[in-house]
């Protein structure tokens, strides 16, 4: 038992794996199972956005565009070109990453509010292309009858069976993502985020780091888009709008920028908050704005940052009490002498 607890302490991600394995046996409602699948897919998207924004410090308010590009790329490859889902999934990430490189190379020369405005423009241009390029994207009607993936002849055509595709994908991506942000590259991202000029003097190619982070974030957005397209079986260009981009950024901010599990926490919070306030769908931006103000004022480092800060304060308090108790025992021992 002690060895098992020690293993869980050294590798906290194991808790996440255990939870993911238990979920399908606990969640029996089809609607909630669909929500779980959506949460896992958005966790992939926001993990990429966390690399870009949380670690590298580059703000993107147009990431719904790359989510949509990945979804449409996968749908076109399978519906119009007849490719297998298993080929379309990696190709969607590759196509989105290539577009991310082409777009990010000039765009990331901007910074701050200018970069944010440029990312909004990218999102709006993408949405208009999806609506107006009727021959390729189906225009305002979108793309219908996107096939479900099959695994050894078994169709993954319901939320429960599809979960067993998404779950290992998320585990694999989060394993790679965790090791990546803890590597030298992840530390270089943090240096660029915290002190770009000093990072440049230390020999870090800051421009290259920014583009690299942007490309990785778009690849993950493309993979998430592909999974979402084949989960729902239908795409609409109106889904990938500015409001969605804001919500994805809010997920990263609320969960905790620069924390590995921050995206997961943020996605869970906002997805279920959206369910609770779904009757106020027309006021989403107002609700997100209020939530953003609350997070910035009361939890500037997000939920993960607040929890970590609480643990550190608790540890300091316990240590202080322990030291005080030890000092009291030592004083008593001296008096006895």
Task: Describe the protein in words.
There is one protein chain. The relative contact order is 0.15. The longest helix is centred in the C-terminal third of the chain and has 35 residues, at 302-336. The protein has helices spanning 2-10, 13-26, 30-55, 63-80, 85-107, 112-132, 134-137, 159-181, 184-194, 196-201, 206-232, 242-255, 262-276, 284-298, 302-336, and strands spanning 150-151, 154-155. A two-stranded antiparallel ribbon has the order 1-2. The two termini are 43 Å apart. It has 337 residues and is mostly helical.
Question: What are its keywords?
Answer:
single chain, globular, 337 residues, two-stranded antiparallel ribbon, 1% strand, mainly alpha
Number of helices: 15
Helical content stands at over 70%
Shape: globular
SS-derived structural category: mainly alpha
Beta-strand share of residues: under 5%
Q: Largest sheet at a glance?
A: 2 strands, antiparallel
Rg calc: 23 Å
Order of H and E elements: HHHHHHHEEHHHHHHHH
Number of strands: 2
Q: What is the distance, rounded to the nearest whole angstrom, between the alpha carbons of the first and last residues?
A: 43 Å
Low-confidence stretches: none
Mean pLDDT figure:
85
């Amino acid at each position: 038992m002690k060895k098992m607890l020690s293993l869980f302490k050294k590798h906290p991600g194991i808790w996440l794996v255990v939870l993911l394995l238990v979920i399908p046996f606990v969640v029996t409602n089809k609607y909630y199972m669909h929500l779980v699948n959506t949460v896992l897919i958005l966790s992939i998207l926001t993990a990429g956005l966390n690399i870009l924004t949380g670690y590298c410090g580059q703000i993107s308010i147009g990431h719904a565009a790359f989510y949509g590009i990945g979804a449409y790329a996968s749908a076109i490859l399978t519906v119009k070109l007849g490719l297998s889902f298993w080929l379309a999934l990696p190709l969607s990430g590759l196509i989105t990453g290539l577009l991310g490189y082409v777009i990010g190379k000039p765009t990331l020369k901007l910074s701050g509010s200018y970069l944010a405005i440029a990312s909004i423009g990218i999102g709006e241009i993408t949405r208009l292309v999806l609506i107006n390029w009727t021959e390729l994207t189906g225009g305002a009607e979108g793309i219908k009858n996107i096939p479900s993936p099959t695994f050894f002849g078994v169709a993954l055509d319901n939320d429960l069976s599809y979960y067993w595709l998404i779950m290992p994908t998320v585990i694999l991506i989060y394993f790679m993502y965790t090791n990546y942000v803890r590597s030298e590259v992840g530390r270089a991202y943090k240096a660029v985020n915290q002190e770009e000029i000093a990072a440049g003097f230390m020999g870090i190619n800051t421009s290259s780091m920014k583009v690299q982070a942007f490309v990785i974030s778009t690849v993950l957005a493309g993979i998430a888009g592909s999974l979402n397209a084949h989960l729902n079986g239908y795409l609409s260009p109106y889904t990938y709008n500015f409001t969605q981009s804001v919500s994805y950024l809010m997920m990263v901010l609320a969960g905790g920028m620069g924390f590995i599990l921050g995206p997961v926490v943020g996605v869970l919070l906002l997805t279920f908050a959206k369910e609770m306030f779904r009757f106020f769908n027309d006021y989403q931006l107002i609700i997100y704005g209020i939530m953003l103000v609350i997070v910035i004022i009361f939890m500037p480092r997000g939920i993960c940052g607040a929890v970590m800060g609480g643990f550190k304060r608790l540890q300091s308090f316990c240590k202080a009490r322990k030291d005080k108790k030890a000092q009291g025992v030592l004083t008593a021992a001296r008096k006895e002498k």
